[in-house]
Design goal:
By secondary structure, this protein is of the alpha+beta class. The chain has eleven helices and 19 strands. The chain has two domains: 199 residues, FAD/NAD(P)-binding domain, CATH 3.50.50.60; 124 residues, D-Amino Acid Oxidase, Chain A, domain 2. The chain binds flavin-adenine dinucleotide.
Length: 397
């Protein structure tokens, strides 16, 4: 049967939308994205577009669209200690000049989707979910999908991709095992008024109770991620806004007196896990569907977009020229061989970064304070460049 679309993507979050754009921006590939929500999300789930991502956005011709949507450059990171003051300041741009931009997560999803649609080859259907994958001769050849009115439809596609997040139904129907390990720590995500003294920087305030990471969002607001240990879980889950603010202000004195904007505030429970395979029966998986990371290193969204970029780079030329299934399978195997080792390292690295920031109470706080202060020495700056290269630029500097 002729395919209705070359590619059906299940899930229109950052990974699915980035994949659609990466596939269609330069090749005549028809893509359908189905997303069960009524539109781009409304919850803050990471808003940093690292240089590793802005480099892709530029190559897809979408960087200006992000700037027009309000993405702001952040050119440095600062680390403070609640008693010792400023410990470290370091640049954030990539070695090739790729910027570090910040945009709220829902706007990132919306802008990626708009850029994908602007190619004229990508269709998004919201309030539409996967019912079941269609398989014949051991291969996935499309899906039954269902819209918000309960109307079912068959979609035939040469390639089906699961970009449907941590509880991926595509992964489950492909029988790809996935073990998710919970952490006992979490992050409380909230927007706050922006202090007058706040610079355009990614800012970390160290404290024995747990660090507070803030990002400028607009001229008037900052987004904060507050590390939450089990002892404070009840406070950040069900305490009053006033009690939460008191705890945040004591950890990050610059925020003292700043009011909360509670819309979208939530306690984000942390997990890590990595699927054993990224492809099965001619279908592929990307993003949180195959890896869930501790967000301390801010990698989840970046990894999802990088997966989409790699899959499109391998598959788009083959889909555009109607190559054989055997050739598509080789492209899929190359995608898995390229991305899985890289992501395994990032899951591991994010895990140790998470441990570094969450362990040790007063002693851990002292160790972190000394290590970040060391970061201003020549050797410390070299180490910082190495770490930055690993988490954000991906290129040797
Ligand atoms: C509450 C929360 C807070 C987070 N905060 C941070 C953070 O602060 N920093 C950070 O780096 N990372 C954070 N993350 C992780 C980060 O958001 C993810 O790594 C990233 O969004 C992964 O992108 P994705 O497209 O693979 O998956 P997702 O963003 O999860 O997108 C998957 C999409 O698939 C859709 N979908 C699922 N099932 C179906 C179906 N059957 N049919 C149709 N559509 C379907 C979902 O509605 C969703 O839109 C957070 C995650 C969560 C859940």
């Amino acid at each position: 049967m002729a395919a209705d679309f070359e590619v059906l993507i299940v899930g229109g979050g950052v990974g699915g939308a980035a994949l659609a754009l990466a596939l269609a921006h330069a090749h005549p590939v028809r893509v359908l994205v189905i997303e069960r929500r009524p539109g781009p999300g409304n919850i803050n789930r990471g808003d940093s577009l690292l240089p590793a991502v802005t480099r892709h956005l530029k190559s897809w011709g979408a960087l200006d669209r992000f700037r027009a949507a309000g993405a702001n450059p952040v050119s440095k990171m600062q680390v403070f200690h609640h008693q010792a003051g400023r410990l470290l300041e370091a640049p954030l741009v990539g070695p090739d000049g790729s910027p570090y931009l910040v945009l709220p997560h829902p706007e990132i999803e919306r802008t990626l989707a708009d850029a994908a649609r602007a190619t004229g080859r990508v269709e998004f259907r919201f309030k539409t979910s996967l019912r079941t994958l269609l398989q014949s001769d051991g291969r996935v050849r499309g899906a039954r999908i269902v819209d918000g009115n309960g109307v079912e439809e068959t979609v035939n596609a040469r390639l089906v991709v699961g970009a449907d997040g941590a509880s991926s139904a595509v992964r489950e129907q492909l029988d790809v095992p996935f073990l998710s390990v919970p952490y006992d720590t979490g992050y409380y995500i909230i927007e706050l008024e922006r202090p007058a003294a706040y610079e355009d920087a990614m800012r970390l305030d160290l404290h024995p109770d747990g660090a507070v990471m803030t990002m400028p969002q607009t001229r008037a607001t900052v987004g904060a991620a507050v590390l939450v240990h089990p002892a404070q879980r009840a406070l950040f889950q069900s305490g009053s806004t006033e009690a939460k603010l008191e705890a945040i202000w004591s950890r990050a004195p610059i925020l003292e007196g700043m009011a909360a904007i509670p819309r979208g505030a939530h306690l984000y429970r942390l997990h890590r896990g990595h699927a054993t395979r990224y492809v099965a029966r001619g279908a592929a998986l990307i993003g949180d569907a195959v890896h869930v990371t501790n967000p301390t290193a801010g990698q989840g969204m970046t990894m999802a977009i990088e997966d989409g970029a790699a899959l499109a780079q391998k598959l788009a030329p083959l889909l555009a020229t109607a190559e054989s299934e055997a050739r598509l399978d080789r492209g899929l195997a190359e995608y898995e061989q390229e991305r899985r080792p890289v992501n395994r390292e990032l899951v591991r690295w994010s895990h140790w970064m998470g441990r570094f920031f969450s362990e040790g109470g007063e002693l851990g706080d002292e160790i972190r304070r000394r290590l970040f202060a060391f970061g201003m020495t020549p050797i410390g700056k070299a180490i910082h460049r190495t770490v930055w290269n690993r988490v954000a630029t991906r290129k040797a500097s």
